[in-house]
Structures are given as structure tokens and as C-alpha cells.
Design a protein that fits this description.
Subcellular location: Cell inner membrane
Helix content: 10-25%
Family: Belongs to the GSP N family.
Number of strands: 14
Protein name: Type II secretion system protein N
Shape: elongated
Keywords: Cell inner membrane, Cell membrane, Membrane, Protein transport, Transmembrane, Transport
Strand content: over 45%
Number of helices: 3
């Protein structure tokens, strides 16, 4: 047998062996390597393999902040990036909604593209529905989000101030990244309020510095409520500095 045939045979055997390992590696072992990404992952049930699997009822956390996940499923797709790493199709569901995305490796970072998400968020003091679309993002495992390009639509946004519910309406936002955080710059779409400023999101924490122009709103209770939430900077205009957990 010629050297060329031997080389081809060995290459074929190694390729088949690699494929067998990918198909047979238990998904539980994959998630147990979560610490490599500086994340803490804990799921009640994990099934499948490295190639295709699903984990349910768990928490993904970093630096003491965790996000509850109802279902996380993945599948290696056929495409390969310039970094010679496979694309991973990801689908995540939790109590708020779902998101799908394609992941790939960029050096020591994770690349994200074609992310689509729909969520309904309800908290004691606020609620909203949101649709997220991200064309491209890069997440460094040490420092957080490095780059981000996308948009978000927030609808039916409402705040509760005591017994008063303030219906803010709908807003669009341009997504970017700075210092490892996601930055959202809101633009009014359909609302009697004009909102400017920005919000920063990091893990499950948020911080917003906003200016709300409520001059078109005639309800004195709402003006009093906005004044309690922040400070009045002019007739019907309020500066709000908000922060907390999502």
C-alpha cells in the first residue's frame, strides 16, 4: 500500500473517530466544562451529546448573578467559520420567552450572529414585551461583551408607582456595547412620552440614565409619580436614574 493511501486511510479513520467522539460524548460532560467559560452551570436534567443535546431546569451564573433557564438546546451545524470552529445553533427558553442564535469561536471569545428573541418581562414595579434582533456580537469570556450590533423593540412598557400604573408605550432601541455591558439607546415609537438617554445591561443587572419628557401628559398623578422616581429638571421633564435586577 502506497504512503498516500496509508495517509488517506489514517485521515479517514481519525475523522470517523472524531465524529464518533462528538456524537457519543455525553452532554453532561459538555456542561460540566462550563467553568472553562468562567460560568457556573447547573441543570436538573441533561440529555443528548456534544453534537446535539438539551438541558432543562437550570441556572447559568457568573460573578454571583444567575439567570434561570427552563430549556437550553444546541446542535452543531455544518458550517465552519474562518476560525475553523463549528457553528452551534442555540435555542434558549425561560419563563420570560425564548431566543435563538448561532454561536462560533473567535479566538478566546464567542461570536454570536442571527440572534432573535421574544420576551415578556413582568416584575413588581414594571412590565414590558420586547423583540430583540442582533446581527453580530462578540462576547469575551473574561471582560464581557466586546462588540454588538442590533436593535430592540420594547412595547407596552409600564411602571408601577405605588397604586399608580404609568403606561409609557412603545420604544425602539439601538444596541451597542461598552466596557463589557450591553448599551440600549431608546427612541420613542408610539408614546405620549419622549425618552432619551441610555440603559446598560450586564448579566441580569440594569442601570438606566433617562430623561422623560411628559409635557403632553395631563395627569397630575403621573407627574407626581415621575417626580418621586427621579427629579424634575423643567416643566414636565424628569431625569430618572434607575438600577436593579432584571
Amino acid at each position: 500500500m502506497s504512503k498516500v493511501r496509508v495517509t488517506l486511510l489514517v485521515t479517514a479513520v481519525l475523522s470517523l473517530l472524531s465524529l464518533f467522539i462528538v456524537l457519543q460524548t455525553p452532554a453532561s460532560l459538555v456542561l460540566s466544562g462550563c467553568h472553562i467559560t468562567k460560568l457556573d452551570c447547573s441543570f436538573q436534567r441533561v440529555e443528548g451529546s456534544l453534537w446535539s443535546g438539551r438541558a432543562t431546569n437550570g441556572v447559568i451564573a457568573k460573578s454571583g448573578y444567575g439567570v434561570a433557564i427552563d430549556s437550553l438546546s444546541w446542535k452543531l451545524s455544518g458550517g465552519f467559520t474562518s476560525e475553523l470552529g463549528p457553528n452551534i445553533d442555540l435555542h434558549v427558553e425561560d419563563s420570560y420567552g425564548f431566543a435563538t442564535a448561532k454561536l462560533y469561536q473567535v479566538g478566546q471569545a464567542v461570536g454570536v450572529h442571527q440572534l432573535q428573541g421574544d420576551y415578556v418581562v413582568t416584575q413588581p414595579n414594571y412590565r414590558f414585551e420586547t423583540t430583540v434582533s442582533v446581527e453580530h456580537a462578540v462576547w469575551d469570556l473574561e471582560s464581557g461583551i466586546e462588540s454588538l450590533s442590533g436593535r430592540v423593540l420594547v412595547s407596552q412598557l409600564a411602571f408601577s408607582i405605588g397604586d399608580l400604573v404609568v403606561e409609557l408605550g412603545s420604544f425602539a432601541g439601538v444596541l451597542s456595547a461598552t466596557e463589557g455591558a450591553i448599551v440600549v439607546a431608546p427612541v420613542t415609537v408610539e408614546s405620549p412620552y419622549q425618552v432619551s438617554g441610555q440603559c446598560e445591561l450586564k448579566l441580569n443587572r440594569y442601570r438606566c440614565n433617562l430623561v422623560v419628557d411628559a409635557q403632553q401628559v395631563n395627569d397630575e398623578r403621573i407627574h407626581n409619580g415621575l417626580a418621586l422616581m427621579g427629579r424634575r429638571t423643567g416643566p414636565g421633564v424628569y431625569a430618572l436614574n434607575l438600577s436593579g435586577a432584571i
